[in-house]
Amino acid sequence: MSTGYSEVVETARAYYNSDDADNFYFHVWGGEDIHIGLYEAPQEAIRDASRRTVERMADMVDGLSAETRVLDMGSGYGGAARYLAKTYGCRVTALNLSETENERNRSMSADQGLGDRIDVIDGSFESVPARDEQFDLVWSQDAILHSGHRDKVVAEASRVLRPGGQMIFTDPMQADDCPEGVLQPVLDRIHLSSLGSMAFYRAQAAHNGLREVQVVEMTDQLVRHYGRVREELERRRDELAGKVSADYIDRMIAGLRHWTDAGEAGYLSWGIMHFRKPAA
Fold first, then answer.
1. Is residue 2 part of a domain?
2. Which entry of 3, 36, 42, 209 is 20 to 30 Å from 218 by CA?
């Protein structure tokens, strides 16, 4: 049965729905938060560093409160949605393409007494199922790379933001001056033909009427994070038997090394990008 998603999005959906990926991200990557972390110590727990990214992004957003309506694009297991709902009382629409991840999100949100403030939607951020100017904040962490039409994602974010609303996101990106062809090992592993860049997102934001508030470049954290995930995967390999296949672990270890090598070579970029839709 066709989902109507683009080929790139459908590839990502199938991947994140797989048992190997679900168990890897849930048990190794961070559980609630499956994105790049902010590390204060070399061997810090992935879970703690990943939660710090959520906290840092929330601190950058103006005016979070129980009145704030949030769209989390690519919400994964819903860690950020629960943090925003629990800490600020926000109402969050968690839009995500993986039905497997969404079931975990619904279960954890209900267990934490937050099910009434978090609406989990199966869908793609290339075509957001929401009316114009519905949200005060569009939030996304390390998800937009999985779109084959990232320009559409930014356009959709702008469309659903009310005047004065904000967009804040992170995404693994190529450096603005990345030489052609050097990222092929990274792209092959994640089944993509390209990555965005800070220059690309700045241009798309401007094209869609969003004004830059702040961009914080922290590529060193991308390198550290992928290195920490690789270390943990290697260390916990035996205990993952029966949950994650040996072939998946081998391929993931090789893929993570491609990420760290490319980051250390200066070919990648990562950071927090924050924009605002002008008030009417």
1. no
2. 209
